[in-house]
Structures are given as structure tokens and as C-alpha cells.
Give the backbone structure.
Amino acid sequence: MRFIDEAIIRVAGGHGGPGCVSFRRETFAPRGGPDGGDGGAGGQVVFIADTQLSTLQDFRFKRVYQAQAGMHGSGSNKAGRDGEDIEIRIPVGTVIRDVATGEVLVDFTTSGQTWVACKGGRGGKGNAHFVSSTFQAPKFAQPGEPGEEREVKLDLTLLADVGIIGFPNAGKSTLISRISAARPKIADYPFTTLTPNLGVVALGEHESFVVADVPGLIEGAHRGLGLGHKFLKHIERTRVFLHLLDGNVVLEAATADEDREEAMKHAAEILADRYRGIREELRLFSDKLIHKPEIVVINKLDVLESDPHLIESCRVKLRDKIAEIRLDPPESGEPLIISAVTGSGIEDLIRAIQKKFEDAAISKKRAAPLLPDDEGIRK
């Protein structure tokens, strides 16, 4: 199924049914008077968030959603049937905006969340409704009112706890397939991933987190180059970034005909430049992204596991450069060393992610304002 994350549709509530003009005609009720019933109300257009959906594919071909009109009233004071509502199911994470004003109308963040986009028109009153002591035989009824109508834009943003970012071919798809049940396309060429992939990582019997593999970013992604601009929005709501760097750079340096230490220094500079480039793209897209918690990981180092000194040399040099770029020292053990192919270092990585969640929860708790009843407890 093709991944569609934007759509513009027109939605309209049903027209209210007209009231009825009718008079009693029974032989045993001479001058029985008016008995026209009211028209039924028009149906509503209701959006419902559904976790079973992950794309706006259904809106590619159907762009107009019109709720059913109410039925007209009839004689014997019979009211018309109300029009049926339209229920439109959309993925969790969808934001609905008004096309005319750009205003955010609703943000669907939980499964089962509902929102009435357009109310149906009110049904018209039948002529029986207008009878009075001085006006005994009204020969008119109200027409039904039109339902609300609007054009809206659906904008899907994936809801994930961890966003895997990095240059193309860094091994993001392999990593998500290693730590979750997701099975994205994997190949040995750049831009293999053309759509974001979601996977669920189990931490324990009742704990898990959602990870998103975002298509590879390149310099200029914020201007629309490559695939990054289209999918950068999908990492705006993530809690932690997992910044994946391609360890093949270290392998190439290790096999070069030069001094090993100088080679590792050169490899660390290349990785630092890539790390700096991705952070700059994030900053240019949104200032908020640059301040999210992150974990830097070097992937594809299984071929150098026989030379731990070489790997550690590169890691230390890169660690110093990360500190310069962030203006803040990295966490202990960062950058982490893994191999998504063999699984080496994966458990340490998951523990590091879990620790980021715990640290964020503690910070949030400390930042929460004190309530009067809690002051004595917290002291």
C-alpha cells in the first residue's frame, strides 16, 4: 500500500428534511385541522481515530463526503427520519486543518477519539407546528436547513517514541527489523526506504515503545532535497532521536595505507561532519528538533570486532567532536557501538533508550508545579 500522509477533502452535513403541509381528511373528523409533521435532521460527518490505519490512502480517490439528508415530514404528525451520519476513520496522529484559514481544528492523538466536523441541517417544521388560536389553518411549512460544509486538510504525523535518523544507507531499516517485528525493504543502496516504517520494541511483559525508521536525510532536506523534507514532520513528536552513523567509514579508514591513529582521526572527522549536517537540517526544519534527547550510534562495526582498540580509538575521538558540536558532553558510553546485522550491542542500545525515557519522566516530574496539598509531601 502506498504511504499517503496528506489529503484535502470536502465534507458536508446532510440537508434537513422539509416539513409537511397536510390536513386531516378523516370522515369522522370534519375540520380536523393541520397535521403536517416535521422534517428529519440531516446526518453529521464524524471523524474517528483508528490505530488499525497508518496511511491516508483511502482519500486519494474519494474527495467529497456528504452525509445523508433528513427525510421530509408527512401527514398524521409523522416526523421524517433523521439522515444517517458518516463516520470517517483516520489514523491516530492525524491533524485536521481548515483549508480556508489554516487553523488547526483537531489533533487526533488517541485511539477512538471522535470529532464532529459538520453538523446536519435542522429539519423544517410542519404546518401543524404553526397552529394558534387565531391562525387555525396554516398552509405552509418550513424547508429544511442546509448542513454545515467545509474543506479540510488531513495531515498525518506518525506517533513514535523513538525516531531513527541518519544519512541514507546507514542501516536504519536493518536496525528496526532487528529490534522489532517490522520488516522494511533492505538493500545495499541508498534511499531503499521510501516511506516511514513503524515497529514496536518490547521492554518487558507490559512495557514497549514505538520506533520509526525515517527515510534517509541529506543536506538540503529542509528545502525539499531528497526524501527528508517530506518525512521530517514524522519525527516532530518523537521523544528520543537515535542518530545512526555508518561505520563503513571506519572500516575504510582502517584498511587505508596510513597510520592507524591518523586514520581513526580522519574517520571521526567524517562521521562528525555527517552528524553535524543532520543536526543542521533538523534545526533548519524546526528549532524544537535540535533540543530533543538523542543517542548517537555507530553501526556496521561487526567486521572490526577483532580489533577493539581500533574501534575504541575512533569512538573516543568522535565523542570529543560530538561534545564540541552539542556544546554538552555526551552520556557515558556514547557513541554506542552496534551491529544491526549480528545484534552486537543491541541490548545496550535498548537499555540506553529506556534510560532516556526514565530521565525525561524524572525531569517532567520535577518541572511540574507544586500543588498546595503536595508541598508537605515533596519537602
The first strand starts at residue 6 and ends at 12. The helical segments are 172-179, 228-231, 248-254, 260-285, 308-326, 346-367, 375-378. DSSP finds seven helices and 14 strands in the chain.
